[in-house]
What we know:
Layout: E1 7-18, E2 21-32, E3 36-40, H1 47-55, E4 62-67, E5 77-80, H2 92-103, H3 108-117, H4 133-145, E6 151-155, H5 163-178, E7 182-186, H6 190-196, E8 199-204, E9 207-213, E10 218-224, H7 231-241, E11 249-251, E12 254-259, H8 265-274, E13 282-287
Helix pairs in contact: 3-4
The structure holds adenosine-5'-triphosphate.
Domain ABC transporter: 9-230
Protein name: ABC-2 type transport system ATP-binding protein
Keywords: ATP-binding, Nucleotide-binding, Transport
Amino acid sequence: MDSPNRALLEATRLGKRFGKHWAVRDVDLSVRSGRTIGIVGPNGAGKTTLLAALLGLIEPSAGELSLGDANSARPRFGAVLDQDGLINSVSGRRNLDQWAGMLGNVTSGEIDDCLDAVGMRAAAHRRVGTYSLGMRRRLCLARALLGEPEILVLDEPGNGLDPAGVIRLKELVAERARAGTGVIFSSHSIADVDEMSDEVVYISEGRVVTRWAEDSPRWWKLRLAGEAAEPENSRHAASVALKEYDWAHWIDPYVGLIAAQSAPLHELLALLSAAELPLSNVVDLGRDIEQPFRGLDSW
Ligand SMILES: Nc1ncnc2c1ncn2[C@@H]1O[C@H](COP(=O)(O)OP(=O)(O)OP(=O)(O)O)[C@@H](O)[C@H]1O
């Protein structure tokens, strides 16, 4: 296994300009072995451009990219991109055979394993031109896994996948990360990004607006019900009880509050209870994974 947390690919003040328009600007990030970075952001934010630059598919206009450390060989990449580059006129298996031929050192058994990993063994003999969107995506994922890449760059890899495919994708990413692969992927699914990533990077208009990691504060969503929903008094009592949490605020009709991991949910509930908001009237809606995204961009 690769040593965990080793820098595989580092971007420093990376920028990409198309004409006068900066699609990516001043981005710093580090893809590390065994770690997964999720990139989120609005349409046109620069996610695809950033990933293409990391892959070396487009020339950056500014900043630096460094691969591995000075003493190690260039890391191997696997990628899933929107433009999948599959050859429609031949089978899925033949597509992978050709790719494996270019990579070198990939056995026929490994190709079978990658097809199995994405559930495409049975359909591998079919012409790719007959595949559905999700089948193409699965084949691309199998192709990305060939040759045991040290870095996986996945641009919206869940696009077109059915629920079982999304679950498999998450398992594969987790498996690869456990084996030491550094993963960077983009997605519009907040739930997927939250679940899959060690670090989430939010970009907008090409820039990193915010980022958070496993140890960042957790948000919880609570709803006042029953007697506690009696508006003014209860809400006031809850606000007072939670005043130590600087960022506590209402998401009408919910109360949303931020809690550091050192102040887990049960402590917050205890505070509310002590404020005579009986727990039977406080509904715990679980983690509020959308909270970090509120107010970042608006339609
Ligand atoms: N080849 C190009 N020529 C000119 N402009 C481009 C080119 N590629 C991307 N852009 C512009 O760069 C910006 C970022 O595009 P990009 O595709 O990276 O966004 P994205 O975050 O991946 O968007 P989405 O979520 O919609 O897929 C957009 O304004 C886009 O129009």
